[in-house]
Amino acid sequence: MFETIVALATAPMKSALAIIRVSGDDCFDVVSKCFSKDIRNIEKRTLLVGEIANDNTVIDQVVLCAYKGPKSFTGENLVEIICHGSILIANQIIEVLIKNGARLATNGEYSSRAFLHGKIDLIQAESINDVINATTKEAKQLSIKSLKGEVSDLVNPIKKSIADLIALIEVNIDFPEYEDIEVANKDLIVKSIDKINPSIEKLISDGRKAKIIKDGIKVAIVGKPNVGKSSLLNALTGEEKAIVTDIAGTTRDIVEGEINLKGITLHLLDTAGIRDVDDKVESIGVSRAKKSIEDAELVIVVLDGSRLLDEQDKEILELTKDKTRIIVYNKKDMQIANENAINISALNNDIQPLVDEIYKVVGIDEEAFEQPALNNTRQLGLLSKSYESLKKAKEDALNDLPVDLISISLMEAYTAILEILGEANQTDLSKEIFSRFCVGK
User: CB neighbours (10 Å) of residue 175?
Assistant: First the structure.
């Protein structure tokens, strides 16, 4: 039996209306104890107007939406109480519901119950949180596709294909005497995996693009002192985020900013100029700049286009050679010719060549914004695990290993797919995921 839980489903702030959500097997009984109408015998979705009271004291006149399980979000009896948007009123209603048998919901408990009752799978559950936390309309649209089950529809055929192959192998092992069963030999296993893995590869590729759209990317702006890094940050964000002077070493710590570049969020980090210094404070900034290079997914190396490269520039180029990077020459208005380079003038907001190059390097095409895709680290990690397990099964088959040993890798691949959907035995994992949700969701 699922005990009745209650929480505020709208933001805890003064507003016209507030919604309080109550869910549980006996939630109709709990609500009836403080509502002016008895809702215990409701058999279908019902809308009522009445009063919530504590004993004989009326708290508020409310609109009450009652949903009979399993036809509700959580899959159990559920009530939404729409009251006036005073925090005092909302808290009083929650208090009286707790007094009458409910308890305060934990983070994500409503979504968790929807998952446990089979109303949504784990991909859809995670997308609820993604919709809430989306910072761009493009990220929101991708999350809504997941919420609608479009992403699960991509994973389910892969699950079925692996399950069919495992089932065939098991039948061959358990019932070798049946002649009308297709033989699970090496060629059939290899052929089946060669059909499945390209689909997984595409899901991984699309998923990495979708993750960038959802989460954005970390971009470190690096270079020696006084090459225009702070001016570039200001030009990209359109704000005076960083102090700009002609004094080398003005930026001594990481200055952050964000921009939405054609639907992709760039988390920009303007770093201290990298050079050898004796100043203790500036040296800490230089160390942090080097750390930001390690953490960044894209590095923009800013060079002074009005001067020839020196040893400091070469050191920075060497430091960033293994990173995904864009090299730009700033101070375009007074620079030495760099015909084949990306030339900008950050101070004059002439940065379009860099913007175009960032979009090109990130590699997100228009199709990526439209198609459903797995888009978080957990999902993509499990998808890669499934891919590698299938690859191992294929190698085992080509090496003529017995089919019962090959099936071990196939089972690992299948389990990984089940974990993506939340169909494996992973109670602890689902608890961890739902703990990230806000209360009331």
Answer: 9
* Residue tagged 């090299």 (tokens): 327
- For helices 403-421 and 122-133, the axis angle rounded to 10 degrees is 40
240, with CB counted inside 10 A (0-12, 13-18, 19+), is: exposed
Measuring CA to CA, which residue among 302, 310, 238, 298 is closest to residue 272?
302
Which parts of the chain sit beneath pLDDT 70?
A: 173-184, 239-255, 271-289, 335-339, 425-441
- Per the DSSP assignment, residues forming a β-bridge with 17 are 84
Please report how the helices 109-116 and 122-133 are oriented relative to each other, as an axis angle in degrees rounded to 10. 160
Instruction: Check if the beta carbon of residue 24 is closer than 8 Å to that of residue 3.
Output: yes
CB 324 within 8 A of CB 245: no
Q: Which of 313, 300, 244, 240 is nearest to 267 (CA)?
A: 300
Query: 330: which 2 tokens?
Result: 């700033």
* DSSP H or E stretch at residue 259: strand 255-261
pLDDT, one tens digit per residue, over 107-151 is 999 999 999 999 999 999 999 989 988 888 989 998 999 999 999
Contact 20, 80 (CB under 8 A): yes
Structure tokens at 407: 């099936």
Q: Domains in the chain, start-ordered, CATH in brackets?
A: 5-105 (3.30.1360.120), 129-212+376-434 (1.20.120.430), 216-366 (3.40.50.300)
Report yes or no: 396 and 184 within 8 Å, Cβ to Cβ: no
With beta carbons less than 8 A apart as the criterion, state whether 120 and 114 touch.
yes
Task: Give per-residue pLDDT as tens, 327-336.
Answer: 999 987 776 6
Check if the beta carbon of residue 253 is closer than 8 Å to that of residue 302: no
Contact between 305 and 330 (Cβ < 8 Å) = yes
* pTM of the shown model: 0.77
> ∠ CA(332), CA(337), CA(342), 5° rounding?
55
Query: Can you read off the two tokens belonging to residue 134?
Result: 């989306």
Nearest to 310 by CA among 252, 230, 226: 226
Query: Mind spelling out the 3-state secondary structure of 19-68?
Result: EEEEECCCHHHHHHCCECCCCCCCCCCEEEEEEEEECCEEEEEEEEEEEC
**Phi (first) and psi of residue 255, to 5 degrees:** -110, 130
Can you read off the two tokens belonging to residue 37? 């109408």
**Closest Cα to residue 374, out of 385, 358, 389, 363?**
385
